[in-house]
Amino acid sequence: MARPPGKKLQSITLLSGGEQTMTAVSLLFSIYQVSPSPFCLLDELDAPLDESNINRFIRVLKRFLDQSQFLIITHKSAPSAWLIRCTE
After folding, report:
1. Structural domains in the chain plus CATH codes
2. CB count, 10 Å around CB of 17?
């Protein structure tokens, strides 16, 4: 069950791909707050996300860069933009 902003509580299978991804990312970072890992591998996490949600993800990711390393695999056309944003 999940409740994205502005929506009612519903099964995660009824959410869009982007909403499912952001819900999973929220859970992942919640776990990281309690029990951080030295590294994290994320494969094509950005595929279902629009630019707005990618920017939200990057803002949250930056909070964890001091305690963990992230390897993010993407097929988007501008992966260097991720690198620049994540290493600022």
Report:
1. 12-86 (3.40.50.300)
2. 10
CA–CA dist 77, 33 (Å, integer): 31
Whether the Cβ atoms of residue 12 and residue 2 lie closer than 8 Å to each other: yes
> Under DSSP, is residue 55 helix (H, G, I), strand (E, B) or coil?
helix
Buried/exposed code over 57-83 (b: 16+ C-beta within 10 A; e: otherwise): bbeebeebeeeeeeebebeeeeeeebe
- Each residue of 14-73: pLDDT tens digit? 998 989 999 999 999 999 899 988 988 999 888 898 888 888 888 888 888 888 888 888
Tokens of residue 13, six digits? 């299978």
